[in-house]
Amino acid sequence: MQVTLTMKPRAKPFLPIEAEMINPMNFIGSQNLFVWEGNKKRRLEDIFTVRKEGNVNSPENIVVVLRGDTSRVKRVGEYMSSGTIIVEGDIGMHCGNFMRGGFIEIQGNADGWLGREMRGGSILCHGNAGDYCGSGYRGEKRGMRGGKIEVAGNAGDYLGEYLTGGEIHVHGNAGMFAGAEMRGGCLIIDGDARIPAANMAKGTCIIHGEIHEMLPTFEKIGEKDGMLVYHGDVANKGKGELIVKSKIT
Amino acid sequence: MFHIEDKVRHIVCPYCGCLCDDILVELTDGRISGVENACTLGAHKFLDDADNRLKGPIMRKGDQWVDISYEEAIAYAVQTLSEADRPLLYGWSGCVTETQAIGAHLAELIGGVVDSTTSVCHGPSILAIQEVGHPGCTLGQVKNRADTIIYWGSNPIEAHPRHLSRYTNYADAYFLHNAFRERKVIVFDVRKTATSEIASEFVQLEQGGDYHVLSALRAIVRGREDVVPDMVAGVPKSQLIRVAEMCKKAKFGALFFGVGVTMTGGKYKNIRNAIEFVDELNRHTKWTISPMRGHSNVYGSNEVFTWITGYPYAVDYARGIAFYNPGETTAVDILARKEADAALIMASDPGAHFPRTCCEHLAKIPTILFDPYPSATTHLCTVQIPCAVNGIDAAGTAYRMDGIPIRTRKFLETGYPTDTSLMHEIYEQIRERKEHV
Amino acid sequence: MSELLIKNAYVIDPLQGIHGDIMDISIRDGRIVDKVSGSCEVIDAAGNLTLPGGIDSHTHVCGTKVNFGRYMSPEDMRAGRTPRRGAMYPTSGYTVPTTYGNSYRYSKMGYTTLLEGAMAPMEARHTHEEFAATPMQDMLANTLFDGNWSLFEAVGDKDIRQAAAVIGWTLAAVKGFGIKLTNPGGTEAWGFGEDLASIDEEVPNWDITPREIIDTTIRACELLHLPHSVHLHCNNLGMPGNYRTTLETLDIPGDMNPDRQTLYLTHVQFHSYGGNTWGDIKSEAEKISDSINNKPQVVIDMGQVMFGRTMTMTADGPMEFRLYTLHHNKWSNHDVELETGSGIIPVYYSRKSSVNSIMWAIGLELALLVKNPWQCMLTTDNPNGAPFVKYPEIIGLLMSNKYRSKELSQVHKLTTDRTSLGSIDRELSFEEIAVMTRAGQAKALGIINQGKGHFREDALADIAIYPVKPDQTDPSLQYEEVIGAFQQTLYTLKDGVVVSRDGEVITGVANRTFWSKANLPEDMDVLKSPRFVEKFSRFYSVDLENYLVQDEYVQRGVAMNTGVNS
Going by fewer Cβ within 10 Å, which terminus of chain A is more open, N or C? Predict the structure, then answer.
């Protein structure tokens, strides 16, 4: 079954919408779904034109397509465990929070906290991801714990903060403090990064581009496959691995 | 002519987070004519007060300001706030906790966001504390014990002029015989400052190099100086080793940091690193770390919001329960994304401190400003409501930068209503309105 | 005039010697009366357990460090969020909920009186501000004296009268209730990063020992006739082998005042450890309870640990730092000049941990081995051992050997060898639980005459009706029903008003703050002592005039008058 949600024009287009109920399993059956626009609770149909095609069987066979300007729609796919969500444009913050399974594809850009505290499944973002992609919540000791996030464009600051498990692969550049406080998992950046792997405890951070402002507290261990291998962060008792390719500036 | 002169003592200065409570104010004919013990910044707060106050509420009508009554101003606030889809209640740092508490409840009542000036000063410090905690102490503990003091990204001689004389370098100390001679002051900054001039050790680092220097210091204290390169962010390794030794040899060390660290480069990561540096030093000797808070009662706003909502600032009640996520629920972010459709600004001046896009948005939406004085924000607001000044003609609770609650004193009768009473009125009217809907 | 009649209540009122009679309770204007008019409102208790409102004699719910626990824990706040309901504000948090969260949850469990365990005098206004936002319970603040320099001087001078003068003045100045000593001397040593290992070690820079501080303070407390005895958190909290310190401390008061309680030892579970390291830690609850069983003038509370996550917070700064070096989680510390310290770290108590499992068992051992329930109060040292919402489970464990055995089989296997819990078959009765959760507290705190903890005529009509019929329930087998009953009342009444019903708080009330007002003769006026005044102006960072807590902060304060004859 495909469910297509097309944004309707809004009187106040900048109001954030919280729509954690946009999760494939919620489209089995015909219960009323509600989202929040600012401080007002709205029916899903007040915000989106909803079109359903095909038969309902199980959530893994449901594809939810978001169409129109969805850049203000937050928490799409939160706690999702199966099925597919395709965002044709940009998506708002916290897309794929706590995701456990299934697939989210974002054809445009994703705002902050993409895949926050994700446990499983995969997210593919064709555009750029905002700050805190694959990170944790304020005060929490664990970020993303499993699954995979792939970003074709660039990522913002604090990419994979507190990454604990799973993999994040950014094809473009990362902002500052990528992989800060990493505790596990694997973070791969094909482009450049600024102050990466700060205070990392465990896990692997691989950077194929240039590193700006490399921290002074990583210990060079050797070379592997043409890459330089560092251990750290020794400011902490860190046992993480930072693998970099090119010269460090 | 007969002049009535009076002196009032133990007045609490409402200017900065030091909340000096030993101010003596001289009154002549019911006006402040002299101030003793205060620094220049604080003295001006008292001496310039009377001449600057707005006489009564004003409302923008086209290009004109029109005088309106307090009742009309409140009615406008009540209607605007209760109808908004995403109201923002910002400021609070100059208010007493009694007003801040009503603010937190009001945000919940109207499904709004309540945020204080914290989000543009020490918000990053709070984010860091939420990651690693905060080994701190009251300022008197520093005064009586500290033999080593670090000011990092902070220039108290200019920003908190009495900090050194009341709590650190020049203060009397119980455990030091000749405190001034025995104390060492270490300053970390990107440029020379008035405070670096009096330091026994000045560490000049490159702009944005705080994190690197802190990481290097942590590694050195952990015995891993072998890893540290010869130069870190413009600082020679030899100086870092010397400073680390000074820190380890201290009997009691106190690190103070200012917005020079919270608002540059890695922001909260800088503070986190500083806290973890202090944690590490505590394995060797006693160290504490404290933010140099700016506004008089900004810390009070954090305390009150925390016990009422669970979070120190940037609390979003859009869905009736508290949600917190700085970067998303902070005033600057909400305005930059043009989310807010009404704003209440309490005793603060975003017009002077916020990015231009935020100010432009404030000017487009109904904005109600509570401030005794005209400010840059006056130019952006729809209505301005003057109220009594906390610490002059209003009293209430304020929290010093180290968490000490102090009651400010009212020593003048001016007839201005307090912000507490006005906020209470707004809250009650909106509550009644909601009950009737 | 408002009147209310509770009919068919299964009343246990230990202070009046009512052991479970079906009876009626009459209420007029918030107080218990002999009878009411026939036309008044009636609640049919239908034979359900009806007790005086619960009293927590040691909890951390308001003030600087509690709020700092909240402040540093947004991850905790996202648990337990509830929206506004009627007149009730939204709440957040699980281990350190917002003030309203604490207040409503305690109210649902039938609690109407709370003693905040630790208030630094200099930060008292903060505690009082939060008291005002904890509306469903009457509040009391134990006031910290463990590092008080003026008290230290009096101890050094062996001047009990001066010690009493300092304590009396301070309590009145900050609107405090009783004396709290937390790791006496140790918090001052922590000012320079040190701690004390025994009660006979000298406090650095001060020519005194913890033993002398405790001894002098108890004598000063008795001289002042304060309602409550000295409330002591012993030195060496949480250290393997610390039971020796605890036993030595228990011997200090002797029969100093044989007529009344002279010492309250708090969270004794944390102070009953044998062994020498975390590897060989074992229970010494038997030795501790033997000592208590021989000292009728001592009361303790359990400080029970329950599994799960929580937040530890105490004025014992050095202990929290030790804990931080073990757990490596976030650590906060806050020393208060001339007075005390404090520390906070989050912890997770795990069944898989031998240490945590032994701790869990020790708390239960204490409650079961102390023979007289009037000497052992039920607490978790909220939230240190567990959030208070776990109290009903603790009641279940104490009332049912079956439940205890079941739980014991699911904790770390070393627990059976290192504690005696498995060999204890005592099961507490409803009456013993009533003593340990209200009547005993009222007596231990000295607030019986304030109308707390009983249904005598003119008592405050604070009442909890729990959905359990004791005469038809066997707690030994039906422990799940008992736990469920104590989790939420049918009715909680505060001052004669139904404030909570079937687990829903339905109306707000205004609470009281009890504080101790010592009336002292002129020679005991510390403000006439140049040494006291000079020390204040030179070494405190606030003016004396701005230190005193103004009446605005205790708008519904109840001053408990006490004093010393000249």
Answer: C
